[in-house]
Amino acid sequence: MKQRLVVVGNGMAGVACVEQILKHDHNFDITIFGDETYVNYNRIMLSSVLAGEKEFDDIVLNDIDWYKTNGIGTKLGRRITDIDAVARTVTDSTGEVTPYEKLLLATGSNPLIPRMEGTDKSGVFVFRTLEDTRQLIQLSGEDVHAVVIGGGLLGLEAARGLQVRGCKVSVVHLADTLMERQLDAAGGTYLRRKMEAMGVDVLCGKSTTAILGNGHVEGLRFQDGSELAANLVVIAAGIRPNVELGRKAGLAVNRGIVVNDYMETSDPNVFAVGECTEHNGQLFGLVAPLFEQGKVLAATITGRRGPEFKGSAPAAKLKIMGVEVFSAGQFDESMPGMEAIRYEDPAQGVYKKVVLRDGVLEGVILVGDTSTSHRYVEWMKSRENLSAKRQSLLLPPPSEDKGLDIAQMADHETVCGCTGVIKADIIHAIHQQGVCTLAQLKERTRASTGCGSCTQLCTSLLRAVAPEFQEEKPKVLCDCVPFAQDKLREIIRTQKLKSVQEVLDIYGNGKGCEVCKPAISYLVDVVTCGGHEEDRSARFINDRVHANIQNDGTFSVVPRMRGGVTTPSELRRIADVAEKYNVPMVKVTGSQRIDLLGVKKEDLPKVWEELGMPSGQAYSKGVRMVKTCVGTQFCRFGTQDSITTGIELERRLENLYTPHKTKMAVVGCPRNCAEATVKDIGLVGQDGSWQVVVGGAAGKGVRKADLLITVETTEAALEAAELFFQYYRENANYLERTYDFVERHGIEKVRRETVYATDDMRAKLLDRLKKSKDRSSDAWLERRNPRTTQFVQIEPIATMEARL
Amino acid sequence: MTHDNSNWIAITNASNIPAREGRSVSVGHTEIAIFNLGERFAALENKCPHRGGPLADGIVGGTTVTCPLHNWRVCVDTGDVTKPAGHSACVRSYAVKVNEGIVYLNVAEVVEEEAAA
């Protein structure tokens, strides 16, 4: 007969412990209750989700299949409200009573709300759960002034996340320096400088007494009487163990639920793990000890009582891209017997300190460069006497060769501090289980599933030991800047980069080439909605002179003729220009326009001026044309006004860059005279509705466009086209046509994230499109204000004749 | 080849050639592409050895320029073709200097060529 094990809490600690139990021979029928509605996810990565570096899917630790495969009863969105330790039952928020033989409390902690007025106002948040994160993402934006109360690990991560989402952010901190629980004053000051350099305001030594506002938050008041305006407040002032159920079960509870070295509580049938526990007077808020506790508990509860939890030195790593902070152990050298060794480089923002007692490492602080953190963690564990190494303690490891560093690691050395995976575990997984990718290693050993700081080390180990190591290398844009385009887009967005050269200098070789420069030009433009610093040297010649270069170095000129509709006076001007500038060929294009071929570069501004028509962008990876049929205006079969609609569509999207050229068509009936179903975006009119189709092609390959949506009104059709257009701009790789893009993502996903997305997502897509559009203009207007000498044929100051 | 003072001619204000871009200039009967590499200038005959494309219109990456027609890459200092690999073709290069904001080109080779012609 199986024993019923009820686990209260579906967070990292509880589920990690269940994972350990499953590794043992056990006799449990396990049910997990979680008050959140999500599967087990990596809570410490929520900061990365907030900062847009990761999506929710990226931080899932155990998907629903894991629960099913392991036969675990899963009750999500149900909070346990009561425990009857005598009858051995729990009651959940639906009132249902569930009996248990063994009970595991993994209730975690709750955000600590400091005593102040007004914490119940709307616009006041904590940052603990995925739901909190979602709300913060939804509310953040450019008109938001967010104040984060608390300058600890979580507060700073929240601040940076909100900031990259566009908010103006201030951090208000009670202590005089940031992260004072992990950093000394000097380290805190280095960190403060980094946060301020990123644009986050920092106010230290400020005690908040009230959140102001009439219903919704409007600001904060401090003890010194000063006030600060804000329309969003995040309280990140610390956490408090969630012990309520422990009390209800009659367990011994101090600040946390008291557990012994075997993770037993005062009730022989009840165990506890994670942030809700207190061990030897110590509380826990970081992930590494929780995994350790889970292992011990798994042994105890499955009848293998023996391994003991010894507590662990606290270690913390700040997860903000570009702000590296690591701290472990005791860093206060003023305590008896402690001595500190420091390294400082203010110009580089690097501060390091180790604290020794009798030659043994007791603590370390690293700001600005945390690449060597695992060395210190190992030394703290091994208690090795470092007296002989004093001189080199703060210098990088002697060898630049990572392989050597790994070879020198002893088998028992820890690779992943969060999960306690040692080198030998990884070697075993590689040799015995055939692991050869990082994803497999994560799945098999759980290494690198916590804070992620050991990912590099795991990869190096795989590379060194696994015979068939497969680098999970996304296709990089170019060797000059070796990142995939998705990653570059994320870097540009989160790091707020605005120019091609910045991207190349910081993330690449500083030079770039004809492959990456136009791509990065596109990315900085689209990510900033046109707010980038335009660098014409990074654009192809066509985008410097707004004409298409021909094989003899001359250019072709295609004026915009929206919807393929022109007028006698336009035609007359075109004819005049063609004659005046001896244009060698005038040709009607396949896109219902007129092409003047063979124009000299220096004549381009005059030609445009005399044409008096806007650029048709026939030279760029941008919006080409909207081809139309005659439609209801004249056609006896027409069911929709394709010409007016086509002209309007062209007006709404013209002048914008796209990942590759974008061709469109609008037809007034399903006879499809303007071939809308083989265009990037097509509108097909029918009686009483429009079909909006996307991803069509009639080039090297032919592909029939997929139906995006059918709508009744012209305005709805135009909006659907706009949604797809902006989604394609934001998500496709540079030089990826819509037909490849739609195939890669699948039309279902495209529909889900455009026309069937939430109101908010759709509004934001349209808003970003509008922003880009507002900043765009007809490129041919540069004829009057050239950016540089781009059209000029330079005449030498002195002539050759003078020389000869 | 003579590089004495008499062969330097003033071409244009340095500010007329933006950083990491090229501009073409006719000297005698020769089209020359002058590149602003940021910290210095370089010059090549404005004619890709592949199909004669205008190198001045290419994208500059470090010390190479890529022809806009078919993406051949040429070293702006030596004139050597670096992409596609294995080509011995070479573009003529010219000495350039900047003095008080004016770009000067050493045209000794142009002079020799035109005298020969």
List the helices and strands and how they pair.
The complex is a heterodimer of chains A (804) and B (117).
Chain A: E1 3-8, H1 12-23, E2 28-34, H2 46-50, H3 64-69, E3 73-76, E4 80-84, E5 89-92, E6 97-99, E7 102-105, E8 109-111, E9 124-126, H4 130-139, E10 145-149, H5 153-164, E11 168-172, H6 185-197, E12 201-203, E13 208-212, E14 219-222, E15 227-229, E16 232-235, E17 239-241, H7 244-248, E18 257-259, E19 270-272, E20 277-279, H8 287-301, E21 315-320, E22 323-329, E23 338-345, E24 350-357, E25 360-367, H9 373-382, H10 402-408, E26 414-416, E27 421-422, H11 423-433, H12 438-445, H13 455-465, H14 485-494, H15 500-507, H16 516-527, H17 541-545, E28 548-549, E29 555-557, H18 568-580, E30 585-588, E31 594-599, H19 604-611, E32 623-628, H20 642-653, E33 662-667, E34 681-686, E35 689-694, E36 697-698, E37 702-703, E38 706-711, H21 714-731, H22 738-745, H23 747-753, H24 759-775, H25 800-803
Parallel strand pairs in A: 1-2, 1-7, 2-3, 7-19, 9-16, 10-11, 10-16, 11-12, 18-20, 32-33, 33-34
Antiparallel strand pairs in A: 4-5, 5-6, 8-17, 13-14, 14-15, 21-22, 22-25, 23-24, 24-25, 26-27, 28-29, 29-31, 30-31, 34-35, 35-38, 36-37
Helix pairs in contact in A: 1-8, 10-13, 11-13, 14-16, 20-21, 21-24
Chain B: E1 8-13, E2 22-27, E3 30-36, E4 41-45, E5 59-61, E6 64-66, E7 73-75, E8 81-83, E9 93-94, E10 96-99, E11 102-106, H1 108-116
Antiparallel strand pairs in B: 1-11, 2-3, 3-4, 4-9, 5-6, 6-7, 7-8, 10-11
Protein model, in words:
The complex is a heterodimer of chains A (804) and B (117). Chain A has 804 residues and is α/β, with parallel strands linked by helices. In chain A, 31% of the residues lie in helices and 21% in strands. Among the domains of chain A are: 168 residues, FAD/NAD(P)-binding domain (3-Layer(bba) Sandwich), CATH 3.50.50; 114 residues, FAD/NAD(P)-binding domain, CATH 3.50.50.60; 55 residues, no CATH class; 152 residues, Sulfite Reductase Hemoprotein, domain 1, CATH 3.30.413. A five-stranded parallel sheet of chain A has the order 3-2-1-7-19, with helices on one face. A five-stranded parallel sheet of chain A has the order 9-16-10-11-12. In chain A, a hairpin with a 6-residue loop joins strand 13 and strand 14. Chain A is globular, with a radius of gyration of 32 Å. The termini of chain A are far apart. Chain B contains one helix and eleven strands; from the N terminus they run βββββββββββα. Chain B is globular, with a radius of gyration of 14 Å. The mean pLDDT of chain B is 90. Chain B has one domain: Rieske Iron-sulfur Protein (3-layer Sandwich). Classes of the chains: A alpha/beta (804), B mainly beta (117). At the A-B interface, helix 17 and helix 25 of A face strand 1, strand 2, strand 5 and helix 1 of B.
